[in-house]
């Protein structure tokens, strides 16, 4: 028999196999260490604080999904299935149940940004519920294969000044980020990009909550032109000697002038000096200009995955 049950009735031991498998997949395929993330899920589930649903078939848990409610925003933060269940009717039933549970909270918007390794079945399943699909690319550069190419830091032209990242840059960086993303597809994938406050929250999550690893101040930078902040880059360490480009933005008036290339070369020079092995990043497939830049610099496509968003007027 197939049952959809409240995730709060599931014990951490019943999901341990899912978490172990996910940690292994992230480590082997993406070179990321996400063990802390699943340790946090375990602790929240232990105190019955994780909202979501689970798929029980017979006596076994074969999948689960969990979500977060923040005001009128609902976020389907994760969905995982046991091997062999992806794309089945049972999997679709689990997704429908998770979305139904989310809708019971009355959100005006739902986002589903989680990374899926075998999510080709997800777009039609989400779209059947009224969601829009967006594709993201996970790219990676092997720094250690061309270490000498990156050791020399770039020299910005005057009167442009490159400053090492400091948390005091955060308010100005949020303004730059908001201006850079205005009108871009990222604002459709995540409502946080639509306001300066939302952009600041994204940066705070990177810098303080460490959702994307531990910030590397030496490899991060802020750029000024005649005193005005015009761009920045934030790099994190997502696993030992594995870097991640957590955020980069340039004011619209200074785009298409090589500033993004300069920031990236600066970060790569610092990571090379620190003997990092790789640098990864996530980019929207629709952002053709950014994709071309990364490909020219040697980044390779590792994984493409869909994300989703729903609003009543979408």
From TrEMBL:
The keyword Kinase does not apply. Transmembrane segments: none annotated. GO terms for molecular function: acyltransferase activity, transferring groups other than amino-acyl groups. The keyword Transmembrane helix does not apply. It holds the Pfam family Acetyltransf_1. InterPro entries: Acyl_CoA_acyltransferase, Bact_Acetyltransf, GNAT_dom. Keywords: Acyltransferase, Transferase. Residues 5-165, 160-314 form the N-acetyltransferase domain. PANTHER family: AMINOALKYLPHOSPHONATE N-ACETYLTRANSFERASE-RELATED-RELATED. This is N-acetyltransferase domain-containing protein. The lineage of its organism: Bacteria, Pseudomonadati, Nitrospinota/Tectimicrobiota group, Candidatus Tectimicrobiota, Candidatus Entotheonellia.
């Amino acid at each position: 028999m197939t049952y959809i049950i409240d995730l709060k009735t599931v014990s951490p031991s019943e999901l341990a196999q899912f978490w172990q498998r996910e940690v292994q997949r992230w480590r082997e395929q993406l070179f990321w260490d996400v063990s802390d993330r699943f340790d946090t899920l375990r602790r929240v589930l232990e105190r019955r604080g994780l909202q979501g649903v689970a798929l029980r078939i017979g006596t076994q848990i074969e999948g689960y999904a969990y979500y977060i409610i923040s005001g009128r925003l609902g976020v389907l933060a994760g969905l995982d299935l046991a091997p062999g269940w992806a794309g089945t009717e049972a999997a679709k039933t689990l997704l429908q149940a998770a979305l139904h549970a989310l809708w019971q909270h009355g959100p005006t918007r739902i986002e589903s940004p989680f990374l899926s390794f075998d999510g080709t079945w997800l777009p039609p399943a989400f779209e059947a519920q009224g969601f829009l699909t967006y594709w993201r690319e996970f790219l990676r550069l092997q720094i250690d294969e061309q270490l000498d190419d990156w050791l020399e830091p770039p020299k910005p032209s005057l009167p442009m000044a490159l400053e090492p990242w400091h948390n005091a840059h955060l308010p100005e960086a949020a303004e730059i980020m908001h201006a850079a993303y205005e009108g871009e597809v990222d604002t459709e994938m995540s409502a946080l990009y639509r306001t300066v406050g939302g952009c600041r929250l994204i940066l705070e999550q990177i810098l303080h909550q460490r959702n994307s690893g531990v910030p590397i101040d030496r490899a991060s930078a802020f750029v000024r032109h005649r005193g005005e902040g015009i761009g920045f880059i934030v790099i994190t360490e997502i696993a030992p000697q594995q870097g991640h480009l957590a955020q980069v933005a340039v004011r619209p008036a200074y785009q298409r002038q090589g500033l993004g290339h300069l920031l990236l070369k600066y970060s790569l020079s610092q990571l090379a000096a620190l003997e990092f092995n790789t640098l990864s990043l996530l980019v929207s497939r629709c952002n053709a200009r950014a994709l071309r830049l990364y490909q020219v610099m040697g980044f390779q496509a590792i994984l493409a995955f869909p994300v989703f968003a729903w609003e009543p007027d979408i």
